[in-house]
Amino acid sequence: MLLNRLKEIVGDKNVSNSASDICCYSSDASRVKGRPEYVVRPHNSEQVSKIVKLASENEMPVVARGAASGLAGGAVPVRGGIVLDMSGMDEIIDIDIDNLQVTIGPGVVHSRLNETLKPHGFFFPPDPGSTAMCTLAGLIANNGSGMRSVKYGTTKRYVLDLEVVLADGSIIRTGSRTLKMASGYDLTSLMVGSEGTLGIITEAVLKIYPLPRARLVILLSFDSAEKAGGAVVRILSSGTIPSACEILDNTTIRALKSYDPSLDIPDAGAILMVEVDGSEGAVSEASEMVKKVCEGIADDIRAAKDEQESDRIWAGRRIVGAAISRLDPLRNRVYVGEDVGVPIKKIPEMIENVHRISDEVGIPIMIYGHIGDGNLHTGMSIDMLSEEEWDKLHRAADLIYRKAIELGGTVSAEHGIGGARSNYMELEHPTSLPVMSLIKKALDPKGILNPGKLGLDK
User: Fold this and answer.
1) The FAD-binding PCMH-type domain covers which part of the protein (predicted)?
2) ∠ CA 105-75-431 to the nearest 5 degrees?
């Protein structure tokens, strides 16, 4: 019996098929649902290897899961099988400051790593809004990023080496501990963003950076989100690369003020939150350039007084996703159509189209996100008891996705495809999706690793 064999590998207490656990592991933070047959909690790569080998023998799906904070159904067992809860593999194995790297287990929570690195004067730059809960293997599997990706880039820039369990249970290393490598295929980059469809990450070696000596947040107010988008183009064209550049439209501002009246953010059609970092001299120079290029287009420009005020501003930004529910207690936020990315110069056009879609469909849409790298989050909330509102939601999301692709963009800039956006993969990748499918078949011929995701095996 499979249950007994799983217990032999990880112990009785680390395997479950109880109704309560099956329910708890049937979803993530998205609307995608599934139903696993077993929940297994491994504690080392050897156990993961044995579990995957057993699953391969029985041709049973295996889905790796961290904190289930994903918004695309990436960790949902849409075809049943085994859910591997990797959160117990949460050791920070090695901090190697001399070589600018750390080695971590897949279940390490993002904020915990940076809290551990801070006394050493270093940090891991990707900065997701879910920092307090998301696990690093989940961040790697989705190539997540966050608010500071304008300057520091996405997670793939920081992954040097991975230990990965393949579909037959074999264990491989994908890279090296050097800061650059030019030998053979880049298997590390192949695994980053693959969402557990090619292998299961059991260890990662990550590059780290020295903490900047100074940071400054500048708030810029505009009478419209379109003008804010134009200001971003001006800032980046000036040669100034902020560490973060966030937009909050008027709907988002009202939601935040309702959620936390103490937040000192201006009333405006939209605001930009621009952070510059580096040496004190570089921060001063960059902030002056931001102010200069935005004069005449921004209605108001002010800088945070100190680090404490900057921290309060960022704390407010991190609660945006939850704050929208305060605008109408009869409506709930639904994470659909919420993670598009477009080329920088297409930002004003994309914002204009989101407003048009909102009017056309008849559903309120708030705009916020990492506008500095073209990543816009479009937040929608509905009366979840109304079929008409669900229809409006899905129509609006479809129009947003298609417009982003039309403008040369993507349906997911950081949250992943999972099962929520897989229907758009062929539209976005008409020539390369068949190649992705070939890679999937080569590494996972039985199709057991997170099946039903990325549009690879419909």
Assistant:
1) 32-211
2) 105
Rounded-to-integer distance, Cα 180 and Cα 186, Å: 11
How large is the average pLDDT for residues 351-363? 96
Q: Give the E-state strand segments of 2-100 in sequence order.
A: 15-16, 38-40, 62-65, 82-85, 92-96
> Which helix H or strand E contains 245, and what residues bound it?
strand 244-249
Do the Cβ atoms of 45 and 10 come closer than 8 Å?
no
Please report the pLDDT score of residue 458 as a whole number: 61
Relative orientation angle of helices 2-10 and 45-57, to the nearest 10 degrees? 170
Mean pLDDT lowest among 107-121, 208-222, 267-281, 322-336: 322-336
The DSSP code for 424 is G
The Cα 445–Cα 458 span in angstroms is: 15
Is the pLDDT score of 321 beyond 80?
no
In order of their start, the domains of the chain are 90-208 (3.30.465.10), 212-405 (3.40.462.10)
Beta bridge partners of 65: 85
Q: By three-state DSSP, how is residue 158 classified?
A: helix
Q: Is a pLDDT exceeding 90 seen at residue 259? A: no
How far apart are alpha carbons 328 and 130 in whole angstroms?
Answer: 24
CA dihedral of residues 361, 365, 371, 373 (deg, nearest 10)? -50
232 token code pair: 């971003």
